[in-house]
UniProtKB/TrEMBL annotation:
InterPro entries: NA-bd_OB-fold, RMI2. This is RecQ-mediated genome instability protein 2. Coiled coil: none annotated. One of its GO terms (cellular component) is cytosol. It comes from the Eukaryota. GO terms for biological process: DNA repair; maintenance of rDNA; negative regulation of double-strand break repair via homologous recombination; regulation of sister chromatid segregation. Gene3D superfamilies: Nucleic acid-binding proteins.
């Protein structure tokens, strides 16, 4: 994993447009010309076996290591997740979790997240996508 490549702030529906790049030794993807390996998502946990996150635009499976199993993750929790993006063999893509945080106690978390994603798109991603086109 190349940690010099930033994690993209996205919603699940945007990942449907991601394309795998084969010229790297590690799995990399491109979204509108932006190279990435990791994603940053937020949403409600809707399943605990397997752990699945729903951000309102789609769902993604979370692959968590033993380091994160000390916390009891359960459906209904609102979580922030950062990790490596993987196109799974099934219908649902996957994130190999590097960081997961329970944000359930923050009342405006969901509304703020959508604003953060829009801000990142307008400030950082849109200019790169326009240059790519």
């Amino acid at each position: 994993m190349d940690y010099s490549v930033a994690a993209l702030k996205v919603v699940c529906s945007q990942l449907k447009h991601a394309r795998e790049v084969q010229n790297h030794s590690q799995s990399s993807y491109t979204l509108g010309g932006i190279l990435f390996q990791r994603v940053w998502l937020q949403g409600a946990l809707v399943s605990d076996t397997p752990l699945v996150l729903d951000d309102g635009t789609g769902v993604i499976e979370l692959s968590v290591s033993r380091d994160f199993l000390h916390r009891h993750w359960q459906p209904g929790m609102y979580a922030m997740v950062v990790g490596g993006y993987v196109v799974g063999t099934g219908d649902i893509p996957m994130v190999k979790v590097h960081k997961i945080v329970d944000l359930s106690s923050w009342p405006d978390r969901e509304a703020m997240w959508y604003l953060e994603v829009m801000e990142a798109y307008k400030l950082f991603y849109q200019p790169l996508i326009e240059d790519f086109i």
